[in-house]
Amino acid sequence: MSGGAIRTGIGGWVYPDWRGTFYPEGLRQADELAYAAGRLGTIEINATYYRLQKRESFAAWRDATPEGFRFALKASRFCTNRKVLAEAGSGIEKFFAQGVAELGDRLGPVVWQFAPTKRFEAEDFAAFLALLPETCEGLPLRHALEVRHESFACAEFVALARDHGMAIVIADHDEYPQIADLTADFVYARLMRAQQQVPTGYDAAALDEWARIARSWRDGHAPEGLAYATAKEAPAAGREVFVYMINGAKERAPAAAMALADLI
Q: Candidates 3.40.50.720, 3.20.20.410, 1.10.10.10, 3.40.50.2000; correct CATH number of 6-263?
C-alpha cells in the first residue's frame, strides 16, 4: 500500500532559543517563518489557541510558505476549555470566521486540544463533534482531537471519532494517555519527550523507531509498539501523516523534526 506524505514539524516558529541555533545569526524575525517552512514539512500554529488573528495574518502566513507545506491550526481554547462542550457553537463559528480559509491549500488539520482534567462524557462530546464544520468558506476541513484524560481511552470514544472521520492525536508523553487507534484518513502525532542533552531531542534509536511507526501509518497499518484502546483494525488505504516535535526540550525541536525527516 502507498499512502500520502509524511510531514514532520514543530510548534510555532517564534522562539528566542532557535536564534543562532536553528535560525542563522542576523535573520530578521519577519523572515523566520519562511526559513522554517523551507526546512520543515509542517508547523503547528499555537497563537490561534489563545486569541483571534487578523485575516491578513493568515494570508501572510500562506504567502511565506512553499507549495506542499501544511500548517496545523490549533483551535481556540474558548471552544474546548468549557464545562459543557455542546454550548461551544458560537465560539466555533467565530474561530472559523477570523480568516482561516485564507490559508488555502496550506491548511492541514485543525487541532482541538482539551485540558488534562476534561473527562469523556459521551453525549456532550458527541454533541461537540457534531458542531465541527466540514468546510470553511468552501475549504475542506480535517479535525484532530487531542484529549488528555485517561477516561478517553475507551472503545466508545474511538468509535465516535471514527464515525466523524476525525483523528485522535497520538501522544508520546509521560502523563497523557496514548490512544493510537486510527480513526481518520490522516494521522496526527505529537512527540513530547525530547531531551535537552540530546542534540536531536530524541536519540538515534528512538528516531529510528518513530520513523518505522510513521512509515507504517503512511502505508495504512496500525504499528506495533503503541497503546490502543480497542483491537487494532485491519490494514487500510494509506494515510497522510503529521508528526510534531513539540514541548519537551523545545530548543531541540527543529533538529529533532529534521532528523526524523531525514530517516523517513
A: 3.20.20.410
